[in-house]
Design a protein that fits this description.
Length: 313
């Protein structure tokens, strides 16, 4: 049976409700063919010729607005970022912190980068190999959704560490356990077969939004009570970058759930520029924004004692 990604998505929408009408891949039943498709023309890569670009998009959409390549780039960016960060900060003697605190600070930045890289890698694997067969489509789709949970957990742990870095080990451990429990529960739900159907994309948005609230709001509230001012909170945990991350990802999620803009231009954005493309690109941008905030906090704490903001130390 010749299964296409369009067939798999029929439960989600048809025709103008979906907006994506052509350029789907058929099942290849070959890993090599699936890998080669990364360099071919379909709506997961968005690759198109100059003439096609001029005809359909007036050269306003660039080829990097694509599912596979956007997250391959994001994965490489954060993997290289881990290496460069650890090479740059390899000498503890230059830090104002104790060796243990210095190591934890480095570990938190590396954990964030690693969780983002894992998420992007699993996403790229799914979008690359999902046409190999229906069975592999299901398996890789599970990994894709688990990657979202992984990056949210990693972001939540790094956020918790910065917000509560001067609190007692008991408080930190309590938050880590809570974060892990919420992420595990969300992961279990994502593995349910019905949850992964395209028609539940809005429900997935609600679930991940709930997980985000569970992961981040308690530690932010606790830090707000301890620090007592927005500028102090931003200095301690990079609040602006976190708000930027949440805002950018929320925008991507809304576009994805509402199928904007392809629902307005059915068939015109099949190769690139549809909501799934925008969501992928925005997740990369949001992750980069948050990384810059973490590096800002790290560089600042590298020079001064980090717990001078805390009233509970």
């Amino acid at each position: 049976m010749n299964i296409s990604l369009q067939d798999i998505g029929k439960n989600a929408c048809t025709g103008h409700e979906c907006g994506l009408l052509i350029n789907y891949r058929s099942a290849s039943y070959s890993y090599i063919s699936s890998l080669r498709s990364v360099f071919s023309l379909h709506n997961e890569t968005g690759k198109y010729s100059r003439s096609t670009c001029a005809l359909q998009f007036s050269n306003r959409l660039i080829p990097c607005l694509v599912n596979i390549w956007s997250h391959l780039f994001g994965m490489a960016y954060f993997l290289v970022g881990i290496v460069r960060f650890n090479q740059r900060h390899s000498h503890t003697s230059e830090s104002a912190q104790s060796p243990s605190t210095y190591s934890c600070d480095k570990g938190i930045v590396s954990l964030y980068c690693a969780s983002v890289a894992v998420c992007f890698a699993l996403s790229a694997i799914f979008h690359t190999l999902s046409d190999q067969s229906y069975a592999l489509h299901i398996i890789s789709n599970k990994l894709d959704h688990l990657g979202i949970v992984v990056v949210m957990w990693g972001t939540g742990v790094s956020n918790m560490y910065l917000a509560l870095r001067c609190e007692s080990p008991y408080v930190k451990s309590l938050y880590v356990v809570t974060l892990t429990f919420a992420a595990t529960l969300c992961a279990m739900v994502t593995l349910r077969p019905r949850f992964r159907l395209p028609k539940y994309r809005t429900d997935r948005l609600y679930l991940y939004s709930f997980l985000g609230a569970v992961l981040f709001l308690p530690s932010i509230w606790h830090a707000w009570k301890s620090l007592g001012a927005l500028h102090a909170l931003n200095k301690a945990m990079g609040l602006r970058s976190f708000i930027g991350l949440a805002s950018i990802n929320s925008l991507g999620g809304v576009l994805y759930a509402t199928r904007v803009p392809e629902r307005w231009f059915p068939g015109a954005l099949d190769l690139a520029g549809h909501s799934h493309n925008w969501m992928h690109v925005l997740t990369v941008v949001g992750a980069m924004v948050r990384l810059q905030g973490l590096l800002y906090v790290y560089e600042d704490s590298f020079k001064i004692k980090v717990c001078k903001y805390s009233t509970g130390s």
